From TrEMBL:
<protein>
    <recommendedName>
        <fullName>Periplasmic heavy metal sensor</fullName>
    </recommendedName>
</protein>
<keyword id="KW-0732">Signal</keyword>
<feature type="signal peptide">
    <location>
        <begin position="1"/>
        <end position="20"/>
    </location>
</feature>
Length: 146
């Protein structure tokens, strides 16, 4: 009986190792692939012509880079909780200021987009970006559940 139990445990352990090896690296994020998929999705959903896309995406990607820098500031701010009430209050105020900067940045770029494209296409592009991020998030959640 002990022999069968040992064999069963060894088989189970080897199965886990094999499973881990097969799934290792499947959750690697490829920024270039993500960007290409997002641009394709937005182009399709907003019905952008190749000329419109070539004008829109450099500006759009510039906005995303600047947004990312601000989001990184928020992330850095939240890594360690301040030790005092005053420190916490300052952290809250700083985060609020950064979030306002993000909205102002978006507003500036949205106005620039409106000078390049018809308003309906800008609306559809921004909506498509939101939908793309939601779909990618849902896809990752489903992958992680399996």
């Amino acid at each position: 009986m002990k022999r069968y139990l040992i064999i069963l445990l060894l088989f189970g352990a080897s199965s886990l190792v094999t499973f881990a090896q097969r799934h290792h690296g499947k959750h690697d994020f490829d920024p270039a692939k993500f960007k290409a998929e997002m641009e394709q999705f937005i182009t399709t959903e907003a019905c952008l012509t190749p000329q419109e896309a070539s004008q829109f995406f450099p500006l759009f990607n510039e906005m995303l880079r600047k947004e990312r820098a601000l989001f990184d500031q928020i992330s850095t701010l939240q890594r360690v909780k301040p030790a005092t009430e005053q420190g916490c209050a300052e952290a809250v105020r700083t985060r609020d200021m950064i979030e306002i900067q993000i909205k102002e940045l978006q507003q500036q770029y949205h106005n620039r987009f409106l000078k390049l494209l018809p308003a309906c296409k800008v609306y559809d592009a921004l909506r498509a970006q939101h939908r793309f991020h939601r779909q990618m998030f849902k896809r990752e959640v489903c992958k992680n559940r399996k």
